[in-house]
């Protein structure tokens, strides 16, 4: 018996529909986008492989469902990111906070480019500092301060790190 049938039999009827939002998830390859989304969907992360192209997952939260489109971060793919921004209602930028300064600089360039993109520049923007379990991980304060993540952000923007 599935959940809807169970609720109907218990005279509660189906649960109210949750609003759905389309979100785009970007970040350099290896930042952990697929791992993060798999965790949020209660899926295993043992067999995660680099995303070729894009993948979409419906991530359930208590009050909403986020249809998250992950765009692969390999060099051959990220040049096409902007073709997949249309229709997004929010942005998640995943960052490897334990990466080298050089990679962090590349990530910052991509982030600033996304922050200023006409199709993203007014959307809520979450910067997720991943790989926090690694000894080399920068703290959230370091990520915010040293990397000047907010440079170029619109004053209308809701940006969270
Ligand atoms: N230690 C550690 N490893 C992580 C973390 N997040 C992801 N990983 C590992 O990092 C590797 C890359 O993770 P993915 O989730 O494939 O990264 P991605 O951002 O989806 O990469 P692309 O799809 O190539 O853009 C995998 O081996 C993960 O297990 C984390 O927070 N800590
Ligand atoms: Mg991936």
UniProtKB/TrEMBL annotation:
One of its GO terms (molecular function) is GTPase activity. PROSITE patterns: ARF (PS51417). Pfam families: Arf (PF00025). GTP binds at residues 27-34, 73, 130-133. InterPro entries: ARL15, P-loop_NTPase, Small_GTPase_ARF/SAR. The keyword RNA-binding does not apply. Mg(2+) binds at residues 34, 51. Keywords: GTP-binding, Magnesium, Metal-binding, Nucleotide-binding. Belongs to the small GTPase superfamily. Arf family. This is ADP-ribosylation factor-like protein 15. It comes from Conger conger.
């Amino acid at each position: 018996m599935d959940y809807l049938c169970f609720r109907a039999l218990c005279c509660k009827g189906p649960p109210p529909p949750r609003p759905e939002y389309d979100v785009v998830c970007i970040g350099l390859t290896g930042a952990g986008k697929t791992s993060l989304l798999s965790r949020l969907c209660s899926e295993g992360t043992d067999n995660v492989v680099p995303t070729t192209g894009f993948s979409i997952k419906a991530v359930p939260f208590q009050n909403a469902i986020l249809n998250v489109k992950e765009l692969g971060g390999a060099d051959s793919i990220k040049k096409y990111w902007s073709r997949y921004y249309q229709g997004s209602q929010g942005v998640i930028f995943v960052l490897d906070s334990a990466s080298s300064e050089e990679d962090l600089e590349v990530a910052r360039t991509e982030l600033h480019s996304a922050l200023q993109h006409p199709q993203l520049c007014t959307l809520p923007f979450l910067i997720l500092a991943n790989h926090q379990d690694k000894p080399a991980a920068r703290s959230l304060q370091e990520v915010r301060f040293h990397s000047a993540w907010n440079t170029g952000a619109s004053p209308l923007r809701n940006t969270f790190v």
